[in-house]
Amino acid sequence: MTTPSAAAAGPSSLPPGSAAESRPADCWRQIGVGGDRSCPELASFIHCRNCPVMADAARQFFDRPPPVGYLDEWRRVLETPLDETASGGRSALVFRLAGEWFALAAAAVAEVTPLRTVHQIPHRSNHILAGMVNVRGQLLLCGSLHGLLGLKPAEGELRRPPRPVLAADGDAEPAVAEPLRTAARLVVAARTTGQTTQRWAFAVDEVAGVQRVAADALREVPATLGKPGQRYSEALFTWQSQPVSLLDAERIFTSLHEQIPR
Q1: Strands, DSSP E only, in 41-184?
Q2: Distance (Å, rounded) from C-alpha 150 to C-alpha 232?
Q3: CA-based, 20 to 30 A from 176: which of 57, 73, 107, 200?
Q4: Sign of the Cα pseudo-torsion (103, 109, 111, 117, in order)
Q5: How confident is the model at residue 3 (pLDDT cuts 50, 70, 90)?
Q6: Are 119 and 161 in contact (CB under 8 A)?
Q7: Torsions phi, psi of 82, nearest 5?
């Protein structure tokens, strides 16, 4: 026997005297599609979501009275004025290069992906232009921020294509690439000028994610700082007690482009 609410649902309600008389309250979890599927009504309704018993349970769930104090709590939240001082901040991707922490405006970051094989460009690759990398079928120029900012690259920063190794019998055996550190990532940055979009990829030793930096937390870069990447930094801020240099994306793109051998 169905509940009065289910019986009022219309012609789709279960008929009187059906197996629903002894049906548990959450029958869809016990004898329905979420249980042992022993409910005889499945032959008619195919799935529990088509059964008026489940429809009635959903109706009761959404029509239930709110808990005590729930509406008052939400009213206080909605009546609270916005904190104007929280606006004007910036979102930036924080990452580590060697022992230094840097950030790049989130608007300039297209994606962060695991490290990929970097293919050197004959007579073109150098300490800044690492080569080309395939990111989901698109070949991108891969630069080295370590080289651009004057930092010592970490071992295994970029994965080179494995070279075949000659076995004793003279047959070539494929080399196995070295395992990469899980913290290292490949960052793809993009800059749009007019109708042209430039995309560069570069490896970083660790990514801390996108962080929101308040406007009053940004400090000017001292002229006597002497830290790596100073000429490419537009501001400084502190994140988890660590000094972070906010890189100027425009200067980074311009410098990377200038380093391409002609």
Answers
A1: 90-97, 100-105, 109-113, 118-119, 129-135, 138-143, 165-166, 172-173
A2: 11
A3: 200
A4: negative
A5: very low
A6: yes
A7: -65, 145
- Please tell me the distance from the alpha carbon of residue 233 to that of residue 248, in angstroms, as a whole number: 6
Nearest Cα neighbor of 147 from 243, 252, 223 is 252
* Alpha-carbon span 160 to 118, nearest angstrom: 6
Measured in residues, the chain has a length of 262
Asked if residue 117 lies in contact with residue 177, where contact means CB atoms within 8 angstroms, the answer is: yes
Distance, CA of 112 to CA of 213 (rounded, Å):
20
Amino acid at residue number 55: A
Task: Read off φ and ψ for residue 62, nearest 5 degrees.
Answer: -80, -20
Domains of the chain: residue spans and CATH: 4-62 (no CATH), 90-258 (2.40.50.180)
